[in-house]
Amino acid sequence: MKVPLPSPSGVSLEDLARLVGGEVQGNCPDLLFGVSSLGQAGKGQITFLTSPKYLPDLETTRASAVIVGRPVPPSAKPLLITANPYLAYARIAQFFSPPSVHPSGISPLARVGADCRIGEGVSIYPFVYLGDGVEVEKGVVLLPGVYVGDSVRIGEDSIVYPNVSLLFGTVIGKRVIIHSGSVIGSDGFGFAQEGMNQVKIPQTGLVQIDDDCEIGANNTIDRASLGRTWLKKGVKTDNQVHVGHNVEVGEHTLLIAQVGISGSVTIGKGVILAGQVGVIDHLSIGDEARVTGKSGVIQSIPAKAVVSGYPAMPHKTFLRSSALFQRLPELAKRIQTLENRILGLEAQLKKEKEDHGNES
User: Fold this and answer.
1) Residue among 102, 179, 242, 245 flagged as catalytic
2) CA distances from 237 to 19, 271, 339, 351 (A)
């Protein structure tokens, strides 16, 4: 749907409603120039309300308009009403934040190896290193300090931020974003025991990252020992995520900060692993499963399950266990009281038995 591009003259609330398929309630005389939070927005900005707990902030915000869902909250503010206000916020934020424009060309301070194939309109910045036999498709951006090993392939319109390492044989799809400090294709952690010694198993596979993935800062994604470590279309990883060798991650899965996945795990599509989740090796996690933060997964998880805790268990069981855990001091006292009563009753019975024996 065609709407005006962001400009110093701003856009109307009606323009933004057309962009996201929403409707306008109230009159917004101000032109809009950007997005901000309820508490920080000012005149000329649009904000969003996604949770009832922020309703008190709706009337105090200084924003010119507010994105809301249904049921529509009572408000004198100009509103942009959508079925999914958070998604509308994301679309509008993208609209006001167009991608950076990078100058095309190869810096003379970049190193380009033998037999490389470089597409049209690429941007290769100073101090990028390209090994031999690298393929860089059109529109790719490689920012300073990127290392690209031999035989790496990078698909159209991907962007690789500074100081990323793409090691030998890595395959990157189209429109992939890789943030600073990530290492793709480092050796998997594979050793065989020989007494007290560890014998290294050569890691001869590769890493494949499919189209439209986004890799956070300081990720490590290990190459396979054999075959491939594979992140499928649309996977998003947060910062400081580790993916072990031969892991397979299904389409549109989210791996949130500090997730650690051991080798040979298979993860379905649409899965969410929340912050600091750990998964031991050779397990499977079914499509659309949810694992809450700090959980430890030590057995396979079926599709659509929601699990929590260590070891990870059904989320409702975890909540009941957590409630019980908080009562443990009280329960311990009650158990001690009951034990003392039982000991007292046993002693009384023993004495009565002895007295009865003496009378006989």
Assistant:
1) 245
2) 28, 12, 52, 70
Angle at 30 between CA 24 and CA 35, to 5 degrees: 75
SS (H, E, C) 178-211: ECCCCEEEECCCCEEEECCEEEECCCCCEEEECC
Tell me whether strands 79-81 and 65-68 are parallel, antiparallel or unpaired. Answer: parallel
pTM for this structure? 0.84
Question: In the structure, what pLDDT confidence band is assigned to residue 98 with cuts at 50, 70 and 90?
Answer: confident
Report angle CA 165, 269, 281 to the nearest 5 degrees.
65
pLDDT single digits (tens) 104-140:
999 999 999 999 999 999 999 999 999 999 999 999 9
Phi, psi dihedrals of residue 184, rounded to the nearest 5°:
-110, 120
Backbone angles phi, psi at 89, to 5 degrees: -55, -45
Contact 81, 97 (CB under 8 A): no
The 10s digit of each residue's pLDDT in 41-56 is: 999 999 999 888 888 8
Verify whether residue 282 is a known catalytic residue: no
Helices (H), 201-327: 315-326
Rounded to an integer, what is the distance from CA 89 to the centroid of its chain?
19
20-53: burial string, b at 16+ Cβ within 10 Å, e else = bebebbeebebbbbbbbebeebeebbbbbbbeee
